[in-house]
Design a protein that fits this description.
about 525 residues; alpha/beta; eight-stranded mixed β-sheet; seven-stranded mixed β-sheet
Length: about 525
Amino acid sequence: MSKEKAKSPRGKKEQIEQHRLHLRNITLDDFEQIKEIMELVYSNAGGAWTKTELKSMLKHFPEGQIGIEDNGKLVAAAFSLIVDYAKYGDNHTYKQITGNGMLTTHDPDGDTLYGIDVFVHPEYQGLRLGRRLYDARKELCEKLNLRAIIAGGRIPGYKKISKKLSPKEYIDKVKNKEIVDPILTFQMANDFHVRKVMVNYLPDDIDSKSYATLLEWINVYYEPTDNKLFGGQKSIVRVGVVQWMMRPLKDFNDLMQNMEFFVDTVSGYKADFVIFPEFFNAPLMAQANKDSAADAVRVLAGYTEAVRDKLVSFALSYNINIIAGSMPLLQEDGLYNVSYLCKRDGTWDVQYKLHVTPDEASYWGMKGGNELKVFETDAGKVGILICYDVEFPELSRILAEEGINILFVPFWTDTKNSFLRVSRCAQARAIENECYVAISGSVGNLPGVENMDIQYAQSAVFSPSDFSFPHDAIIAEATTNSETTLVVDLDTDLLKKIRTSGTVRNLQNRRSDLYKVSWLKK
């Protein structure tokens, strides 16, 4: 925010000549003077900070808190922090990015200097003190080799004209110099450009009607320290979850058309992964409904390789990694339930279901696989457990010990109690292994398919349970028994945080001197 106004210097020439301005860092002793200025400047925008907030700001990033004093009196100040901007993106609020004003979000390894406030005592507005503070910020940004300065800017002139103009129209007129805004005009004159309009950025800002501009200044001297230009490890991973409607399908092409629709939709949000449910291709079994259940599932298995190959082509063309739910795979030694990971680099890998349910064994003659994999992807390490497998905690523990951040669970359940077994176990796996778990199920009915006729699901994405995560450890969940998608951002840096400094540390605090989980298959 900025309160520097563009108007003529005040007072007489002899008064100006008596000024003795000094640029320096803020200290806690400045609090009373800061409070006085903020109460004058922000009477309609929330007032002054508390001493506790200022103390926390100075603790986390003292170099970023800058003031100007005149003959020993503080008359202007600018506050900032460093963030990894990709963690927040353009749709954040002032409270979110500043840690409720405490600067707990400050990241010394971040790439962006974020301006949280600039204000000037009303008696000193017009002396271009705001420009000095902005120049000091730019110098700090360059010296710290940060990519840019970003800030949320107030538009206090908007209140008077809000009934006639939308925020965008108002900003356009300020850009075209048809309107002078006391803050935005100044910021644009200091080489900042508007990236977008923000809604409810600062709810208490009455004069701006709670709107703000997202502003950016690019540091042209920035030198990236990571020599790897592409394919670096992601800290924010975007995941799409498909809650799939089971419906009668004419043929293979009909199935692929439905799948492509969801792949296209989720990839449109630039997601890194999309997950489909277990046995998503079951509608094709209706073509063999005159046969026994065992024969019908083997007919279904005849489509598996063709579906996999088509999904690999989708992964390539839509630039997204696809967790292909699960499908039956018939091999010489038996019938298996497998999930393919179709990567956007054109390769694929497979995870076999290790524990088959009693129904899978008795109706279909299905057997379990014997290998548990950790998949290396361009968005980090992930694991896949198919439905019933998530009810066996040893598997996810082994995956967690191998460093996965996200566990994908495609499932199929027919009743609510079956669904609750899967979902509650998935939540437990997220908490005990300090990872994210995404579950994808199917809904609807297939009257012509024995043993797959009804569905019950509420797909979701679960997190560990601590202060950095949602209060109920549920990042998102779908409406029960409705076809839909979820698209969520998963912050893997938060997993690093909880594993080292969480309220509890399930991975770190295991009593390995007493017990262990080990994989016996060679």
